Amino acid sequence: MQRLRQRICEQGLVLSDRVLKVDSFLNHQVDPALISEIGKTMAERYRHEGITKVMTIEASGIHIAFAVASVLGVPFVYGKKKKATTQSDELYRRSVYSYTRQETYEITVSKPFLSVADTVLIVDDILAEGAALNGLIGIVHDAGARLAGVSVVIEKSFQSGRKTLDDAGIPVYALARISKMSPETGVEFVHENDEEAVVR
Amino acid sequence: MQRLRQRICEQGLVLSDRVLKVDSFLNHQVDPALISEIGKTMAERYRHEGITKVMTIEASGIHIAFAVASVLGVPFVYGKKKKATTQSDELYRRSVYSYTRQETYEITVSKPFLSVADTVLIVDDILAEGAALNGLIGIVHDAGARLAGVSVVIEKSFQSGRKTLDDAGIPVYALARISKMSPETGVEFVHENDEEAVVR
Q: For the Phosphoribosyltransferase domain, which residue ranges apply (chains A, B) (predicted)?
């Protein structure tokens, strides 16, 4: 997605060779027009996959999930990082270790919202180590649902998340794949056109 | 909003005279078509207010904010409950006491995303005691921005949040106002038509 890559170059801040700040348009302040285009692009790719549910994790995946689910015409579910007071005890649960925060937390999804009848597309804003995504994939597995794939806005290809998903045979569709970055040289993208990005 | 009230009656679960579970369509599993309609309805009300930014709090306000901001054609910002690793130290901060969780947490917004030049619409899913909303209102105040109003999907009118906002002179637009509820008798709405709901 050319417009997204351009936005990353123009407004993303490379704080180190691992930390990219995109909170002016993606995950703190959000540009709804860009997110809508991202949603359309992701939905287009999965239009013929029989998706019944889009899933994500709170908080920064929620607007992405909304945009994709709107186009596909299906509900979305966001995994919770903290048990809600109104949540029932019938929960799918997975423990997740956050590398950035260096702490373990639990993702939960209420059982009525995910079943063996579902075909799921998981979306999120950024794929780095993929810890939270793998927790959500575990929940889809626990429910006996079919996982159609994982789609992210930005993939940091030099971190381990993409390889872990590849090794598990899970199709990944990333709209912008960053091969390398540094505060001095900025962001470099994986050399590929949009079509090649989805071929594995 | 008739369709919303109907949805609350049909799919909402009244767990006690204070706790309403709407997680099958509003704040865990989400129906994007309903949220889009909610966004259009809220945006319509504020179309001529010169809104430059929609604000909410993670996580369950994010899809509401996206839907409204999309129609108004402005960015939205979600207040964070936990400081992100990429967040700068230039933050607006307010402490919030959560009645449901019985704990205090901090809402933060990065300073570059809110300024004296902004006219803000604050949105959220549910107005109960209004603690988180008041934290966000404090942040809008700290930034010297103009607050056009607060709009929520569901207001539990029997809790203190609405009165606090009324007393502070802040216009509130709630799409469904619940006057009373119990597991035995279900949900009762404030008697008014949609037009009256916004008159204070």
A: 32-157
